[in-house]
Structure formats: structure tokens, C-alpha cells
Amino acid sequence: MSRIVILGPPGSGKGTQASRLGELWGVPHISSGDLLRAHVREGTELGRRARPYMERGELVPDELILDMMQERLSAPDAERGYLLDGFPRTLAQAEALEGRLEALGQRLEAAIYLRVPEAELLRRLSGRRTCPRCDAIYHVDTMPPKREGICDRCGAELIQREDERPEVIRKRLAVYAKQTRPLLDHYRERGLLHEVDGTLGVERVPGEIARLLAAAEGG
Ligand code: AP5
Hints:
Blueprint lengths: L1 E6 L6 H12 L3 E3 H11 L2 H12 L5 H12 L7 E5 L5 H13 L6 E6 L2 H10 E3 L6 E3 L26 H15 L1 H8 L3 E5 L7 H14 L1
Parallel strand pairs: 1-3, 1-4, 2-3, 4-7
Antiparallel strand pairs: 5-6
Helix pairs in contact: 2-3, 4-5
The site of BIS(adenosine)-5'-pentaphosphate (AP5) has 37 residues, from helix 1, helix 2, helix 3, helix 6 and strand 6.
């Protein structure tokens, strides 16, 4: 049973790794960012309220996120575990997740922190391309699609996300440092934090995560 949180700054590879590990382990990859972008695309009330925060690179208010995540985590496919990407992002969100798990008699297995220096984050975010239909992630240099500009998985035209303008990226990095980085200590104090070198190649990171989790289980 895997209930795992993937932590790290924007561009550290949370979505890339959570998607791969989810397929490998047969549990859903649940990304708060992908869920929010789907709400924005579909023009729901939540999407309408979240959009201005996302465009500015700020966090969407906790109460909107908590309702959305509560609903997603209650879906049948999340019963056997999940990989969380982008949630929790504040201490209030982490505490809400813990409260939910406790009420269900469940526990979080681990929090994986992908460590990547800022210069590399900027390089990755400026070259990222995303599929607006299936949320697959590419990079023009390091993970290009087979046909330029076209998603390998579903054939849709790839896009650059709206929050990838340089000034918004800078804001997202600052918001991460102030509001999300404190979660590292939160999970470290609970003995759940595992640090991974996120600069390893895309193919090597899953193996490293599996190795750390196996060592933690053994110890
Ligand atoms: P969200 O969508 O969660 O964005 P983020 O956390 O800023 O992270 P990213 O999706 O930009 O990066 P990533 O770490 O997933 O990296 P990726 O795998 O794509 O959130 C967007 C917005 O939604 C927020 O700003 C906020 O407004 C709102 N929001 C979301 N959740 C919220 C919450 N809980 N509370 C409040 N607000 C919330 O990889 C990046 C690039 O690098 C790709 O091109 C990839 O190909 C490449 N790459 C990945 N790994 C490697 C590698 N090992 N080597 C080389 N290249 C690599």
C-alpha cells in the first residue's frame, strides 16, 4: 500500500516521477496542479476562483484546495494508495491530510523530496512542454516527444503552461521557499522525509526512490 507525498520546488520533476512511479506501482498519480488546470479548462466555479492565483504564481487558498483534494482522495481508485504531487503545499494542508488519514486508520508511508538547484529548475521550466489533454510532460532538450510538438500518448498538440513566464516562475520559486519548504522539517521531524538527488537522469530517479523506500522498510 503506497501513500506517498512527492515534494520539491517547481520544475524539480514531481509530476514526471509521480506519473512514472504511479504506473509502475499501479496507484494513481494525483496532482493538485493538474486537477486545478482541468477545472480552469472546464470553466468550473473552482477553476474561475483559482485561476487568478495560478496566473500570478501564488498558492490557491487552502479551503478551495482541501475540498478538491478531499473529493479526489475519496474516489475508489485511491483506496489502494496514491502518489501526491503538489499537495500538501502548506502546513495547514499537511495537517488536514494527516487528520483524514488518521480518521481512516491509515498512515503516510513517506515524503520524497526531490532536490534540484535553482539554475537547473529555470532551465527545465523554460523548456517544458505539456499535453493539455492527458497532462503528459516533456522537455524540448531532455525529454522530447517523438514528433515535435505532439503528445506521444494521446496525439494532442503540446503547449507551454501559462505560469511559465519568467516573472511568474520567479514568483512560484519565492512562494515555494516561503510557504512549502517548511514542510521538509515537518516531515523530517516525523521520520518520513527521504531526500533524492533530483538532478539524476529521469530514468534513474525512480530506482533511487525505490531504493530509499526499501532501505527505510528494512530499517
Ligand atoms: P503545480 O502544477 O503543482 O506546479 P509546481 O509545483 O510549480 O510544479 P511543476 O508542475 O511546475 O513542476 P514539477 O516539479 O512537477 O516538474 P515536472 O515533472 O513538470 O502547481 C501550479 C499552480 O497551481 C501553483 O502555482 C498554485 O497556484 C496552484 N496549486 C497547485 N497545488 C496547490 C496546492 N496544494 N495549494 C495551493 N495552490 C496550489 O518537470 C519539469 C521539467 O523538467 C519537464 O520539462 C521535465 O521533462 C523535466 N525533467 C523532470 N525531471 C527531470 C530530470 N531528472 N532530468 C532532466 N529533466 C527533467
